[in-house]
Design a protein that fits this description.
Elements: E1 3-5, H1 15-21, E2 30-32, H2 40-46, H3 51-60, H4 69-80, E3 91-93, E4 98-102, H5 112-130, E5 134-139, H6 143-152, E6 158-165, H7 171-178, E7 185-190, H8 194-206, H9 208-213, E8 216-218, H10 224-244, E9 250-255, H11 260-270, E10 278-282, H12 287-294, E11 296-297, H13 318-325, H14 330-343, E12 346-347, H15 350-359, E13 360-364, H16 367-381, H17 387-399, E14 405-410, H18 418-423, H19 432-435, E15 445-447, H20 451-462
Parallel strand pairs: 4-14, 5-6, 5-8, 6-7, 7-15, 9-10, 9-14, 10-13
Antiparallel strand pairs: 1-2, 3-4, 11-12
Length: 464
């Protein structure tokens, strides 16, 4: 196996080079040249594996033996040794047909830890092997930044800069990033939205001379390894549910902003995992819901919501799905993306929309619906949902038939979003690592949303 670009002008890339390239040099996203298929018999053999062993099995389909087996196993052990639950992503049953997969047991209490603890360790491994300083550049709507920083802070041979939208993340998310005082960490608070931050990142990675000069590496889900690491927990959850309800049809409801987490589920399904339906849960920034329901991908007016990590209008991983929807035709994918760049809209034909709706359902959750879901599940089940997970649960209630089983991905600990929890009249206790953040000084710079300003600050950071 090797890796190719969704736009067709970058191909024959190995696994390590895929990790390092991040965004393809032609501006597309890297994907495997073929998706490996796991047989039903092999899936049966994988059912009882621990999370770490399952991760090794899934990764091995993609690494091309570029990482020796023992090194890969050691990277996985290191990455998940920091999690507070031995299962890494435990699955809990809330109702007869609805389970929650808790993805928040990593060091920053968010699902991004599952991928970024591994990717951070992998970058450190590659930096040491190649004797090269790695400059990681990323944008965050809240959780990616803290997880990425935690994954590489203080590590030799790595510098990291994270852009986040100024005052548009939760207080805890901001503190998790900006209270880190390691010399290899730079936090830039951008006057603008997450989409502005993401646009700057893509522009800089598309500037191949700049990217090459500073050895820029991607931490956002434009990096395929992020997707691959998240694919593992779909297998893990499916196996746990089948143990409880053998033969059940299993849907997944996924809080979605950048289309990365749900694309990981789509990849797992393409690999042979018998996922029934992927339910795309979003908030008032519902470009993805409109695409699933109407076949029109067009950004709307940006809205700040109770679920800020999903306050995204342009989903960077959408291009990966578009490539497969178009029959793996890179010329068509490139044409659609060029049209989106010039016209701001993608519209697909009815026959393509039918294919989309065969794989996905979607529901955009309003603010009051989100808060009501938090309140009802706390009262009726004694379980506190964060607002993103609440969107997932509300979408499950809207889109999953009563006779089918659904796993809702719980993407963050509710303590990260106390602003929303307080609106429901619920008082929660912070885990000690989060409580400790409020006494620490912050380290960040507020900058405008121009590429030129970010370049100026990056060059100063990289050459100090």
């Amino acid at each position: 196996m090797n890796f190719i670009s969704t736009r067709g002008k970058t191909a024959g890339i190995g696994f390590i080079d895929t990790v390092l390239m991040g965004l393809a040099d032609d501006g597309g996203l890297l994907i495997p040249n073929e998706i490996p298929h796991i047989s039903a018999a092999r899936l049966k053999e994988m059912e009882s594996l621990s999370y770490q062993d399952l991760a090794y099995e899934v990764f091995s389909y993609y690494t091309n033996n570029e990482i020796p087996d023992e090194d890969l196993k050691d990277l996985i052990r290191q990455s998940y040794a920091t999690f507070r639950d031995p299962e890494v992503t435990p699955v809990k049953k809330l109702t007869d047909n609805m389970y929650v997969m808790e993805l928040f047991h990593g060091p920053t209490f968010a699902f991004k830890d599952v991928a970024l603890q591994f990717l951070g360790n992998l970058y450190a491994y590659v930096s040491k092997k190649q004797n090269e300083i790695i400059h990681i550049l990323g944008a965050t709507s809240g959780d990616t930044g803290a997880s990425a920083i935690e994954g590489v802070r203080g590590k030799e041979g790595i510098r990291i800069c994270i852009l986040h939208p100024h005052q548009k993340v939760s207080r805890v998310q901001e503190l998790q990033m900006t209270t880190v005082d390691d010399e290899n960490v730079l936090n830039l608070s951008v006057e603008g939205t997450f989409d502005d931050c993401q646009r700057i990142i893509k522009d800089l990675f598309a500037d191949v001379p700049f990217k090459t000069k500073y050895h820029l590496r991607a931490i956002n889900s434009i990096n395929f390894v992020r997707i691959l690491a998240q694919t593992v927990y779909y297998f893990y959850a499916y196996f746990r549910v089948q143990k409880d309800k053998p033969g059940a049809k299993v849907n997944f409801s996924v809080p979605t902003g950048n289309f990365g987490d749900i694309f990981a589920g789509y990849l797992a399904k393409r690999m042979g995992l018998p996922v029934n339906k992927l339910i795309l849960a979003t908030n008032e920034n519902n470009i993805l819901e409109r695409f699933v329901l109407e076949g029109v991908y067009r950004p709307g007016e940006f809205k700040s919501t109770h679920s800020p990590s999903m306050d995204i209008q342009v989903a960077s991983n959408f291009e990966r799905y578009l490539y497969y929807l178009l029959g793996e035709n890179p010329q068509q994918a490139a044409a659609y993306m060029e049209g989106f760049k010039t016209d701001g809209v993608i519209t697909i034909a009815p026959e393509l929309l039918s294919r989309v709706q065969a794989d996905f359902a979607a529901h955009g959750v309003g603010g009051e619906e989100c808060l009501a879901t938090i309140g009802s599940y706390y009262r009726e089940h004694g379980y506190l949902l964060d607002p993103h997970t609440a969107c997932g649960v509300a979408a499950y209630e809207k889109c999953s038939p009563a006779e089918e089983v659904c796993v809702t991905l719980s993407t963050a600990h509710p303590a990260k979003f106390n602003e929303s929890i307080e609106l429901v009249g619920i008082e929660q206790t912070y885990p000690q690592p989060i409580q400790d953040l409020f006494a620490k000084p912050q380290h960040q710079e507020i900058v405008d949303s121009s590429v030129e300003e970010i370049v100026r600050r990056l060059e100063s950071f990289y050459t100090k």
